[in-house]
Amino acid sequence: MIISAGNDIVDLQTIDPARTIDPRFYSKFITGPETKLHSLPQLADMPFAYFVWLLWSVKESVYKFKQRHNPGLVFSPSKIVIEHISLTLNMAGATNGPIEGQGFDEWFCYSGTITFNRHTFYSRSIINSSFIVTVANNSENFGNMYWGVKPIGNSSPGYQSMAVREFILKKLGPVLEANHLNIIKNPSGCPVLYDGSVETIVPVSLAHHGQYVAYAFLFGR
Amino acid sequence: MTRQEILSELKKVLSPYTLDKEALAGIDENTDLIKDLKINSANLVDIIIDAETKYNIEIDYDAADKMVNVGGCIDVIEEKTNQQT
After folding, report:
1. Residues of A in contact with B72 (CB under 8 A)
2. Euclidean distance between the first and the last CA atom of chain B, given in angstroms as a whole number
3. I need a surface site. Which of A68, A98, B17, B85 has the fewest CB within 10 A?
4. ipTM of the complex, rounded to two decimals
């Protein structure tokens, strides 16, 4: 089983709702059977624009999970097939952030089952009126998957990049009990965690969109 | 349209989605939309829709997959506009 992490964040203040619900837009990455998932009882109350971006977020997270071990992989959202999405009613609803967690057992979240290149993947997404955050995994057990989402005050790419690194490193330091952690993107654009000059085996995933940044990493057995 | 002409027009399509105007001014066929122009992946579909509107073409799933760098975008626009003539 490959070890990886993949996440995505959608800033809902940044999207164009009118364009989102135009079939010409969403049909570029959502297939007919996937569109029908919106009529599932658990999803029927969700605004269609949120549904569209939820599916985008799931597909992008799965792509990022898979791309770590397939550097040349092209993001083909129509080939990442969302088979099912259900709502898991647990304790906490999300605030506007920052929020962080280990696994999703305590969260009010959407659970997805996805197939891509004959492999099955799983996703967990938290949605509120400000953002959609998703984490993908190749196991239904998210217990060792750490994640976080945080609002930032500046949406320039340079600031987003700096802020998301600062955010994840603040969590990784105490979890890994390491003081010299650093993240460098490899030539294919995948973030790699180093301890000093030594590459670690901890897979990390970073995401930013508009006024939000998010991370995910897998640690522990 | 030559590839250079398409590239020149493509800058206008990409412009709303990148803050890095210097990088945009200097694009060539190898420029990666996400890595080099810092375009958020959430805007890739916007670019496809805007290109469809600008050139009055339809870009299908397979063609859209190629639009990750400037050369790929030009390939798709060139191919689809040639199909119209």
Report:
1. none
2. 12
3. B85
4. 0.89
Total-model pTM: 0.94
- Write out residues in chain B with pLDDT < 50, as ranges: none
In total, the C-beta contacts within 8 angstroms joining chain A to chain B are 39
Q: Identify the architecture of domain B3-84 in CATH.
A: Orthogonal Bundle (1.10)
The whole-angstrom distance between B2's CA and the closest CA on chain A is: 27
Give whole-number Cα distances, B73 to A148, A196, B25, in Å. Answer: 34, 39, 16
Residue A169 and residue A162: Cα distance in Å, rounded?
A: 11
Residue A88 confidence (pLDDT)? 82
Mutation choice for B interface testing from A8, A75, A162 by most B CBs within 10 A? A75
Q: Which two tokens mark A7?
A: 């996440």
The architecture that CATH gives domain A1-221 is Alpha-Beta Complex (3.90)
Residues of A in contact with B59 (CB under 8 A): 28
